[in-house]
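User: Predict the structure for this protein chain, please.
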Amino acid sequence: MCQNLIVNTTNMFVGAAIGVGPTDMYILYIIATLSNIPLTAVRANMIDNTRGKAGKYRPYLISMGLPTALLAVGYVCFPYEKLGVLLGSGAVFGKAKAYVATCAVVLLFNLLLQFFFNFFNDAYTNLIHVLSPNTQERSDVLAIKSVVYSLAPSIMNIVLPIVAQVVADNDLYDLRVYRISYPVFAVIGMLVTILIYANTEEKIVQAKTHTIQISFIDSLKEVAKNKYFWIISLAGWLGFLEGAYGSILQWSYTYGHTCNGGTFAVIQTLTGNASLWGMLLAPFCIRKWGKKKVLLGVNFMNIVCILSMIIYKESIWWLFICVYFNWMFGAFEQITTPAIQADIRDYQQYRSGERIDGMFAAVLTIGNVITLLTSGVLPAVQKSFGIYEGNGYASPYDILDTTTGQEGLLYQMMTALILMAALGAFLNMVPYFFYDFTERKQKSVVRVLKVRAMFEDYSNNALNNHQLVEAIDLINNAREMAVAEPKEVSKAMYKNVKDKAEKKLAKKAYKDALEFNEEIEISKFVCAEIDKFQSDLYKHEIDVSTQIYNQGIDGIKYIDINAAKADLAKAKALPKKTEDEKAFRTFEIDIAKKKISCKKAYDKYYGSLNNFVSPSMENLTALFDKEDEIDEKIFELVAEKTVAKKEDDKEKANALTAQIKALQKEKKNIQKQSKDLQNEFAKFNRAAKLFNDAKKLLAQEENFTHFDEIAALYDEAKLKAEEEDRIKEEEMQKRIAEEKAELERKKALKAAKKNNK
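Assistant: Here is the predicted structure, written as structure tokens:
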């Protein structure tokens, strides 16, 4: 719904329903797009510094979803038609006052939507990245989500024409159509959003005591170092031409007169549903071939489908077939691309130690600039074919009409658009040839993150029983599998088997052998992490970190920036021929840069103060725990209030309302306190990063040497974990029984009332 409202160069709602001209709409589009650049950075910083039981994204589903729904309704219901009466006649900037005011209102709503809707959309879209650390599970959930999400255009295509037929004589761009339908869509959307919030849980593989330790600028730099981020981004930017054929079916119907309105409605509906099959098939294909091969394959098929349009472009049915399969194959990318985006966030956390999901969106803002620069390509091409205001036709596009326009121009234009789209599809495919973060690498990275989280939480006395058991099992399995002999694997194991039952068993043995060998490689990766402190590089890192740690936190006060800059220059001059030399050079550069950035942060935040100490983690944890307690209490009181209302006990309901409001006020105050404390942590961690990283590395090394002591807790932790699971299961069963009993009570009460009548 909101996507239909945000201005772009082809927005028919703004252009036809509200009445903003193409040139002015382009100007509004540029302003709105540019405004989104700083807003994206704000959203990213807010997300990455959000911490609590609800997660990083879930809180914003509600807090940003409600304003978005209200803005959407306000947008369509604004009395644009009364602006003329209110402002009177006269001109501003050479145009009518009412028209200029209309443009201003449209711009205002778009600026607000750039923040609220995009924030909501970021939270909704990125939530999938943190629902599970398992890449295949994420792909499966993405498929379901995308299928449901794809129903929206179909619902719109069904509802809006019906409303238009009833209230606007089939005029789809009569404002009344939107004023009737959009409030209903908004209410339904909010109800669904609440359901999503209530029934999801974020599962980020990160230490519970971990706080963001990277500044906004540094996080941008870290994302910029992620080669996989640039690969996937470059694919999207280079492929901007792929959508050039987007209007080809509409033009074939409108200007080519290739079918009647009823037939075109069927074509539109069928085309809109084409994506469904791609979304359903994507998880199975990913499971079989992996995301990279699937992306390359579907991009190749997209090129074939697009180029095939040229064969018989005069037939709308041939165009429909080509577009249908193009949309079906294109739907695969709606699953694979977000799944890859989730994977590269895992890689980012592995590289930098920080989970900076929000900052990825900030860097993606570059795409908005590129889109802004490239958005003029298609209008320029159209203009070269004579499609521009003042070309002698009532509408610029009427020149394409096969009966009243310029002969043959429509199909010349189609050919140009098809070739442009095919080029875009090809360019979109090229970067993926360089993508090598396989499913195996992602699994390896996630396991290492679990090991790191275990050691970090252990050092902070925050390690829970389930986490300990999982990590120890993981490490023990890695030690065992890393030295195992790989199995010989060949498709000949099952291809030459004729008996169906035996072939089925042979295929299973083949797959099991592949998984066994994959497990060996993953285990070697995990063991390399556990044994890393035995390498020469890490021995050097430990020596440097020891020196930094021995100088203490106050050592940052006395850093000489000029000396640090000289060290940076020396580090950059170090050899980088071998992998070991590259790693050593990278470490030395990193240390020098940390010295410079930490000194600058110290001078900024603490230069005039003597108190350069870390805020209290215990206080922050206590605030989070208190907030969780209040949430649970509010939930209980809301349930009691619902019962009281049904029993018509107004006094009790009012008393409960007062208690809920008091708790909400207390919660708001606690959230402010925790936010202030988190800000203090952020400042301190930026200034003390050099010391903190040294301390963390030394603590990690110390913990690795005491692994046997941690492992000794395994048996006790496993028993406790099993007991916790048993209690949790009992509580769940009790809750189910209570809900069932309550349902039966309500049914009995309803039946009794019916009998009394």
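The mean pLDDT is 82.
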